[in-house]
Amino acid sequence: MDLSYSAEDEEFRARLRKWLGEVLPGLPAKPSADDWPGRRAYDLGWQRLLYDAGYAGLHWSVDAGGRGATPTRHLIFLEETEKAGAPYVGANFVGLLHAGPTIAAEGSARQRARWLPPVLRGEEVWCQGFSEPDAGSDLASLRTRAWRDGDDYVVSGSKIWTSHAEVADWCELLVRTDAQAPKHRGITWLAMPMDAPGITVRPLRTLAGSAEFAEVFLDEVRVPVANRVGEENDGWRVTMVTLSFERGTAFVGEVVACRRVLGELAREARKNGRWDDVPLRRRLGRLNAEFRALWRLTQWNVSESERGGGVPGVGGSVFKLRYSQARQELYDAAAEVLGPEALDLGREWTVDRLSSLSYTIAAGTSQIQRNIVAERILGLPKGR
Amino acid sequence: MDFQLTDDQRALRAGVRELLVRRFGRERLRAAVGPGGGGSAGRRAVGGLDRALWRELGEAGFFALRLPEERGGVGLGLPEAVLAFEEAGRALLPGPLVATHLAAGEVPGAATGTCVVAAVDGSLVEWLDEADVVRGDVGGAVALRSVDPLTPLHRVPRAAPPDPVAALLTAAEQLGSAAWTCALAVQHARTREQFGQPIGAFQAVKHLCSEMLVRVEVARAAVYAAAVTGDPLDIAAARLLADEAAERGARDCLQVHGGMGFTWESDVHLHLKRAWSRARRGEGAAAAEEALAEDLLTSAARSGA
């Protein structure tokens, strides 16, 4: 058990800090949440800076164009960028964290050459067309259909919860190509160009008031067969290769951010007198224990994946279950600290409290995660 | 960074587990607890300490684990001690383990297990009457009818000052207990059938078990990290999470066992009662929470944010 970083890792950290110190003051002003073209330009601009400095695709393999960094280096990168207040991955999320790694693992040489470099260079944005109105937790029951017509697939159906759809160049799309086969064996993975005729994007307003997601309607959209990654009807396996949390690092930046918020909460409570409320103060102390432990669990999972050759484990489900709950408890405590101002949307924590409600739902609900933990780690029988 | 067990640490853990399975397996545990039952249930005197086992633990290096080699010890550190105490918690090993371990090198015979050392921890003393040496002020000690059949307790009027290492080793025992009750619940859920299938196929049961594991793994990361850093705040955090994992784990394990979990014959209540008693050691949860709250103010000030 060793929590100290090697001299090389510390050198990497120091270089990164220095670079962040130089580059962050020169960033343009952050665009407003509703300014989608502005957000796209801002996020791609940041990715380009990372690329030029040699930090793009840090955790991607070298033959995919990445830096082949160890999980520990990736952890340091995410920790330091968050601490420095660098931009989030934003519009580059799907490209860097899901579609890209999927293409790197399952795509042909030609597909990798076409799609991977623009993601790393900050030139193209990907979105994800997986969930459907009737296929949420039961994703494999998706019904968006695709049928062959010459060298194209023709796709009809609808997708939901698609982030950045308004400004994406590509959509990693799961479609049903065999309606007779068992549900997991009739799915195909396609890269759909978002400028193809027949695509309608409708923003989906969340309870927080912002339009972070969209619904995507597909009416006989033509997608070249050459855009299929993997074999026809093998799309479920293709997707699952990367649909687990990246090497335990999925929430590194967020845990760092939560710890900062917790410190801010304590100071706010001290300022407004709520600090004298013993149960509230103790609650903040317990949250400190919680987030310290979540940071240690992150380090544990990263070390585990480093030993295992970078393969993500089911430990991600354990982490996500606890973290999503802790994040909600953090912002509930924030509301207690704020008092009446917890009802003021002008307070950042009020909006963050609303957003925290999605954490136990997105990327696998807590109920689904508990099934995964029970069946795949504890070995309990599969339910019906 | 390599925050995983080394090969030596794995071997040490396996060695302690093997020793405890051999010398303090389930039959020995149940013999120590006694049959309960009859009019004397819960009222019978607690059985004595197994001194032969105590000496064997001493010979195996359980108490001298952190004592330097030149002083006759094993020369290992807190992480190894935590692994050994985790196994003790898993096996529900009785006796003043923490007090004797902490006395190694200071009280003659403690390191070798020839001397049983008890100590005031918080406002309680475990195994006062069985101990050869008692550390701390036990003036005015009053015997309790201990809820834990394997831990005789006295209450003392003057609490001992907190010892972070004692708190960490206690947290390690809680962790071991939590891991074991999780395993016990899963084993029962796999084999017990109702409505024509193992109860572990029902999501209500499955989710109880998953939450038990989550608490164990979060506590494990906190306890092991605290063992590496030795930092009092890391230890305070570890203690809160390990207490929670052990107490709630034992309760959920009892729930999964249904009516059988409520019987004396089941082992679940032994884990729950011990977890309750360990959670009363040291300063208690409130002090740990206050220290961690205070840390939020001071660490924010330090970082200049």
Automatic annotation (TrEMBL), chain A:
Entry cofactors: FAD
All copies of domain Acyl-CoA dehydrogenase/oxidase N-terminal, residue ranges: 7-123
Record carries keyword Repeat: no
SUPFAM superfamilies: Acyl-CoA dehydrogenase C-terminal domain-like, Acyl-CoA dehydrogenase NM domain-like
Domain Acyl-CoA oxidase/dehydrogenase middle positions: 127-220
Domain Acyl-CoA dehydrogenase/oxidase C-terminal residue range list: 233-378
Parts forming coiled coils: none
Family to which the UniProt record says this protein belongs: Belongs to the acyl-CoA dehydrogenase family.
Protein name according to UniProt: Acyl-CoA dehydrogenase
Origin species: Streptomyces dioscori
From TrEMBL, chain B:
Family the UniProt entry places it in: Belongs to the acyl-CoA dehydrogenase family.
Organism: Streptomyces dioscori
UniProtKB keywords: FAD, Flavoprotein, Oxidoreductase
Protein name as catalogued: Acyl-CoA dehydrogenase
Record SUPFAM superfamilies: Acyl-CoA dehydrogenase C-terminal domain-like, Acyl-CoA dehydrogenase NM domain-like
Molecular-function GO terms, alphabetical: acyl-CoA dehydrogenase activity; flavin adenine dinucleotide binding
One Pfam family of this chain: Acyl-CoA_dh_N
InterPro entries, A to Z: AcylCo_DH-like_C, AcylCo_DH/oxidase_C, AcylCoA_DH/ox_N, AcylCoA_DH/ox_N_sf, AcylCoA_DH/oxidase_NM_dom_sf
Superkingdom of source: Bacteria
Cofactor(s) listed in the protein's UniProt record: FAD
Domain Acyl-CoA dehydrogenase/oxidase N-terminal per the UniProt entry, residue ranges: 45-102
Domain Acyl-CoA dehydrogenase/oxidase C-terminal: 168-275
